[in-house]
Amino acid sequence: MDVAPYLDSPEKGDAGLSALARGVVGSEILRIAGEIRAIRAKGFPVCDLTIGDFDPKYFPIPQELLDGTREALESGQTNYPPAEGILPLREAVARLYERDLGLAYPVDSVVIAAGARPLLYGAYRTLVDPGETVIYPVPTWNNNHYAYLSGARGVPVIVSAASNFFPTPDQLREHLSTARLLILNSPLNPTGTVISKEALTAITTMVVEENRRREATKGKPLYFVFDQVYWTLTFGKATHHTPVALVPESAPYVIFLDAISKSFCATGMRVGWGVMPPAVRRRMSDILGHVGAWAPKAEQVGVAALLNQPEAISAYRDSVRGKLVQRLEALYRGVMDMKNDGFPVDAIEPQGAIYLSARFDLFGRTVNGTAVKTNDDVRRLLLGAGIGVVPFQAFGLAGDTGWFRLAAGAVSLDDIAAAFPRLRALLLAAASTPASAAR
Fold first, then answer.
1. pLDDT at res. 10
2. What is the DSSP string of 22-39?
3. Hey, what long-range contacts does 172-179 have (CB within 8 A, 24 or more apart)?
4. pLDDT of 324 higher than 80
């Protein structure tokens, strides 16, 4: 029986949904990805710099992880794992943090989940009541959506290239006294920038001082979520630091988020972990357990085996960083060569993660019959030239600044080389029209 005639139209169906469902905003990145698929289906070449992922052709997962997961599947490790994660993996994470970051956490501080995404959302649900304040910089990844979904009062702090796309202590100071949660991510998605030791020390010290004030007044603590899912991917002079290593007194208030998705190019295997005060960990485990947000057991077994092999991990990291640096440097040099030739573009030298921040200031021009007024106008022009990028608006930043995220994990060096002649042709077309709205 064909049931389609009995189904409601999308418009009518929305009327029966919750206010939360009606108000949620879908992923801008996924929408852009759909446009790219449609263009490719017509046979047009696209250098896809939109997806924060790795193409396994260029970035396969570690052989040790593959072998360990296969062995776990073959031995029947296909049942439910504990809600907090299997003990061997939690122990391996604790050893990893002590070995590589100098942080000796008890196993009771570690929770395993299906990637870092549910852990970030879990932090909102564990620590924030509806109406309480969460501070995060913009651009940032998904915090605007999670604030909405949890009923939190999101306070976006607008950052810019002038501060390396991180908030300054002065920007945060006015908000900390009323906040329940501060969230920072370094290396940062979408900008690929890394917070400085000095800035992180100052911000973490402010968190400690605010909590001392609250202890005296019996107030709820201010927690600091530090998303370091890209921490193994830093380049050049950039160095990763952690709040707890810099300010040990912050340990009762810091929640680390991490995963294999970026460090081991295993985005689809969905294994992540949080490291935090044990009391917070226990409640987060309860919440995530109710929604089944645990990582598959076989993958947990495979990750535990990998994390206990430091030499294999070191060799793998070196290989991945080398290939990423090649791609990010090729993108950066290509943009800066055009800047030096007088085109209205700019970029920030690669520091970390898998992203390059690039600016295309085509506003006020008419290019190929299109009046360029917004970031999305620029994005569509670039896509027409076979280059897929994501505007910073997809990461909560309002306003049209010309800044875009370029992701380097799913393209080849040949893809990048082929894209720049098309980009130059587009910019030459833009140069033939006057800029009436300089920014």
1. 62
2. HH----HHHHHHHHHHHH
3. 172/135, 172/203, 172/206, 173/206, 175/133, 175/135, 176/135, 176/206, 176/207, 176/210, 176/222, 177/210, 177/213, 178/133, 179/133, 179/134, 179/135, 179/155, 179/222
4. yes
Burial class (CB in 10 A: 0-12, 13-18, 19+), 61: buried
Q: What is the rounded distance in angstroms from the CA atom of residue 4 to the CA atom of residue 297?
A: 38
What was the pLDDT predicted at 438?
39
Span 190-194, average pLDDT: 97
Contact in structure between 249 and 95 (CB atoms under 8 Å): no
pTM over 0.90: yes
In this structure, are residues 103 and 246 in contact, taking their beta carbons and an 8 Å threshold?
no
| pLDDT digit string, tens, across residues 380-398 | 999 999 999 999 999 998 8
User: Which residues, other chains included, contact 282 with Cβ-Cβ below 8 Å and sequence gap of 6+?
Assistant: 84, 108
Cite the beta strand spans of 333-423 per DSSP E.
345-347, 355-360, 366-367, 370-371, 387-388, 390-391, 403-407
Write down the pLDDT at residue 31. Answer: 86
Cβ(69)–Cβ(299) under 8 Å? yes
Q: How confident is the model at residue 123 (pLDDT cuts 50, 70, 90)?
A: very high
Side by side, the strands of the sheet bearing 153-158 are: 110-113, 272-275, 254-259, 223-227, 179-185, 133-138, 153-158
62 vs 74: CA distance, rounded Å: 19
Does residue 161 carry a pLDDT above 90? yes
47, 418 contact by CB (below 8 A): yes
Mean pLDDT, range 85-91, rounded to an integer:
98
Cα gap 39→383, rounded to integer Å: 9
